Amino acid sequence: MGFTSFIKSKQFFFSLITAVIIMGLLVFGALQFLNIYTRHGKEIAIPDLRKMKVENAMGAVAENGFEIIIIDTVDFNPKYPPLTISDQDPKPNDAVKQGRKIYVKINAKGYSSIRLPNLDGRTLRHATAIIESLGLKKGEVIYEPDFAKDVVMRIEQDGRILRAGDKVLKNSKINLVLGDGMLGYKPEVDTLGEMYEDVAPEIDSIF
């Protein structure tokens, strides 16, 4: 039987139909397997784990097969209790599949300490910007006699003079002692008034 005759035969036609059916069944089976393997349509809302201790959070997600992974300990945030979860990924109420890993960040036990830079001779504006960038707060501004105005003479905290390199806790207040610009200042003299005051007694004495 020639090739042309074969493709026109019923045997070829039935073989082609059988091959198409088999391929269709294989594709259908593969899709069903993928749906089952990926748990298609069976998504679960992530609970809000913030403000929870890690061990408590693990218990809260265990039944859904979630795994908690700690990725970092961040600077202390007063909005969250110490050593509790302050951030999570996926976010609360996100819909995910069972068994998903949840990455969390832990709030530090307390404020960390930093070393002070040298602020002597800085202007009030510049010193304030540096303090705030370090996570500190500007406290009282105290003026003392000095030639320069609004320039830092020293910094203090709780009555203690601080120097460059000293450690202080973040979020604490730093008091700034500034010059008032009045040292060596001499007000202008009213020359005409002084002359009148000097001459006036002599004029009075004539009469």
Trace the largest sheet across and list its strands: 7-11-8-9
Number of helices: 5
**What is the average per-residue confidence, as pLDDT, rounded to a whole number?**
86
CATH class of the domain at 113-180: Alpha Beta
Number of strand elements:
11
Gap from first CA to last CA:
159 Å
Q: What is the fold-level CATH name, i.e. the topology of the domain at 113-180?
A: Trypsin Inhibitor V, Chain A
What is the correct CATH architecture of the domain at 113-180? 2-Layer Sandwich
Which of globular, elongated, flat, extended, rod-shaped describes the shape? elongated
Radius of gyration: 40 Å
Contiguous low-pLDDT stretches (5 residues minimum) are none
- What fraction of residues sit in β-strands? 25-35%
Structural class of the helix and strand makeup? alpha+beta
